[in-house]
Amino acid sequence: MQSVNVLVTTAIGDENVRRITAVSPGIKLTDVSSLSRAEYGGDAAAKKKLDDLLAEVEVILGGRFPPNIIARAPRLKWIQVMSAGVNRFLDSEMVASPVVITNVSGIHAVQISEFVLGLMLMFVKQSPLCFQLKQEKQWKRFTLSVLRSKTVGIVGLGHIGREVARLAKAFGMRVLATRRSVKRVGRARYVDIMLPQDQLRRLLRESDFVVLTLPLTPETDKFFGEEELRSMKSSAYLINIARGGLVDEEVLIRALDEHWIAGAGLDVFTTEPLPAGSRLWELPNVLLSPHISGSLEDNLERTTDIFLENLRRYLNGEKLFNVVDKKKGY
Fold first, then answer.
1. Is 108 one of the annotated active-site residues of the chain?
2. Quick check: is 272 catalytic?
């Protein structure tokens, strides 16, 4: 019988632990989440215990991992991360190593796309003004708009982008999108015009809402800056539910303050938690949320479902799914 040492670095609950150990009698699972937290807090004894466990580990499941994991875990073969984005895990040692990384890409598409539509609806229905008038106890009527016939531009048509496109079409919107693999202008399901990356400016010029759904990689770090923001309509809104690092935040603040664009819906930021001194807290044309667009009550169960399927494949010597291309960063 194949014996596999599995470490869980993020607490997943007793029921999910039971589900994992039920896959095979050969699975030896250890929850090291408390040791990992203690090590981050400077506990030397916890670090020593964790070193001993990492020396024998073959598979790791978690949302956060001990530092220098490649050097400390010489037998490690596979890491299942509990997020879709993997940029924070891909240091030079990890990229150069033979360790396979899989993510949970796809499980957040429904909740995040609904979040995006919610932000767009809040802007056309002037919800920020409603909140303001309520605080001021003001009864002041105003004119609203609709999503129908407006254009949404989706930058990066992956799982989330496709679901945003589907929902947008249900509202009667026109959908533009870019995707790295697209080489010429065409169409796609729920997308009226599919554009190659080098035609991003066209998407920005024509869109009433620009939605960022790209992974954060060295190529996309701060790729959305002054040139991109000035290419947008002054009446358009930027929505970022991907990673804060995609946007040059200081330039974005200036664009919002000087009304290059109408506003922004932001779930992610360059620094998280968002510092109390950030001007983004104060700007009236910004809707903020604390990186929660992908959250659901059953996220741990759904993440465990993916890990279970991959664990069965791993034990059977089959190809894992959601394998990350470490050089591309997604």
1. no
2. yes
